[in-house]
Amino acid sequence: MMPNQQRPVNAVQLDANMRIQQSGDNHLNWYSPLEKPFHIAGFGWLHEERLYRRLPTKPDWKLPVAVDQLANCTAGGQIRFETNATSLTVKVKLTGTANMYHMPATGQCGFDCYIGGQGEQFYYGTTVYDHTLAEYEAVIFKDMARESRIITLNFPLYQGVEEVWIGLDQEAQIDSPPSYDSSKKIIVYGTSITQGGCAARPGMAYTNIMSRRINREFLNLGFSGNGKGEPELAHIISDIPNPACLILDYEANCVSTELFQKTLPEFILIYRDKHPLTPILVISRITYAKEKFHDQMVKERAERKQVQLRTVEQQRELGDANIYFYDGSNLLGEEAHECTVDGVHPTDLGFLRMADGLTPVLQKILAD
């Protein structure tokens, strides 16, 4: 064997396009996005607690330990503003380093950037950094023309953010972003798939894709492996004001069909007690690749689909006209097995297909 064949390959050293870009700019002004005119979306208790956290730190109802920890993951969070900056850099302090074997650090711990207004948002770039670090500084863009742009920065999906700072050139002006079509929020409760596992970058989680198509604030309440439909979560979620729609997408974590038959109606009734007219959309889970080889998995999915369908039908028979069911088994399309990283968790392609299927459904519900 030749000596050079024994050396490990380091593509970052060999490919200049993969190297981490340094700002080299000491003339930046640094801003906290917690201050005006920046707008932060996706954290239901931000104004009270000033934390990048998806649930309250001291709720009236006891949180499961795992959910309490996962609430620190910042999935669905967004920083929105308008600026004529020629350069944009972020400083980030995470609660930990990238540690997942099947999800890139860019999706787990990175921010990505979209430029443009509603319906015209275009992906620009993702933070590139040393994934072994819990603190990093990353250039989003520099040497841009001096013109006004609407910026959306998507928070990491699978790590917590203690601090984030926005660095702009000293001559940059900052303004508030355009308003949403409505102050009412889309709330999505679910599993690791809801949380965004395993998107390559934050903007490709299906809730973030949908937020670029529907001009509303989305709250991502996906809790990886722990979206089990506990009544405590129903009570806490029902405290979120101004809901436009509640989406329940937690079949994949429901533990058992028997328990699902109990938790789903109970969750809906708890939520209905405070929000009798808010639309509720119940989604059955996507197909898994291994179902082709395991009939029991297909049978189980069919049983749980019927649980959800019957629950919705029973509610409608009782006079609830604002509850809907959607069969999620069709979301990934005919080649569903090509849309995941591990047979379960979608890749960016899978999430794009999910958003393509769900967007018109949600748009119709909101229009009605």
From TrEMBL:
Start and end residues of each SGNH hydrolase-type esterase N-terminal domain: 29-174
Source species, domain of life: Bacteria
Domain SGNH hydrolase-type esterase: 184-363
A Pfam family it matches: Lipase_GDSL_3
Protein name: Lysophospholipase L1
Organism the protein comes from: Paenibacillus germinis
Taxonomy of the source species: Bacteria, Bacillati, Bacillota, Bacilli, Bacillales
